[in-house]
Amino acid sequence: MDMNKRIKNYWEGEAAVYSEGIEEELMGFQRKAWREIILENSPDYLKENEALNILDIGTGPGFFPIILSEAGHNVTAIDITENMIRYAKENLKKEGLTAQLQTMNSQSLDFKDNTFDMAICRNITWTLDDPYSAYQEWFRVLKPGGKLLIFDACWYLYLFDEELKKKHEENQKRIKEKYLRDIHEHKDPEEGDALGKSLFMSDKYRPQWDLKALIEIGFSKVFATVDITKRVWDDFGRELNGDTPQFMVGGEK
C-alpha cells in the first residue's frame, strides 16, 4: 500500500473522534479565537467587510468552514477522506450554515489558477507524503496578493530529538497518572505511531522548514509565529501538548 493511501485509510477511521473534538471547540472560546487569528491575516487588497473566497485544506469535520461561513465568507473545503467530509456536512447542517465541501487530494487540486483569496489548513501538513508539492499547488490556486496560512505542530519530532523525547516521556507519564489517558487518543494508536515514524514532516524542525520551502516556491512575503497556543488552546490542551506547541506559518503570493 502506498503512503498516500495508507494515510487516507487511517484518517477515515479517525473521523468520529475528530468530529467530537470540534464540537467541543465550537462551544468554547476557540470558535472566536480561530476566526480572529485567520481574519487578521487576510489579504491587504480586500476592502473592509468584503467576503473572502477561502480554501480550507484538510477540513476534517468542518471546523473552519463553520466559523468562517458564519462570518459571511465563501468557504470551499476539501479533505481526502470521505468520512471527514460526511461529518463536515452534518456539522454544517447542525449549525444552519453552508460551504462547498469536496473530497479531494490536497496535493493535486481541481481548481483553476488564481482562484482563492486565502488557503488555510490546520494539523494537516504533517500528514502529507509530499508537502513541498502540496505547497506549490496551494501557491498556484491563490490570487496574486492572496495569503496562505498553515497551522501545525512538530507532533512526532520527539522520535528524532533526544531532548524532546525526554520531555515527551515525562509529560506522557504525568498525563497518564493525572488523567488515566494518553496525550493523544486515537481509534488506532498503533497505526498512528507507525505513520508518525515514517511521514516526511516528522523529523523536520518547523516552521523553519516551511519558511524555506515557501520562499523557494515563490511567495513574496513569508512569516511565522512559533507558538500560538495561548490564543487557540484551552488550559487542558496546553497541558496535554505543551511540548509540541501549535505554530502558524504563512506566505503572501
TrEMBL record:
Domain of life: Bacteria
Transmembrane segments: none
Xref: Pfam families: Methyltransf_11
All residue ranges annotated as the Methyltransferase type domain in the record: 55-150
Molecular function per GO: S-adenosylmethionine-dependent methyltransferase activity
Gene Ontology biological process: methylation
Keywords on record: Methyltransferase, Transferase
Name of protein: Methyltransferase family protein
Record organism: Lachnotalea glycerini
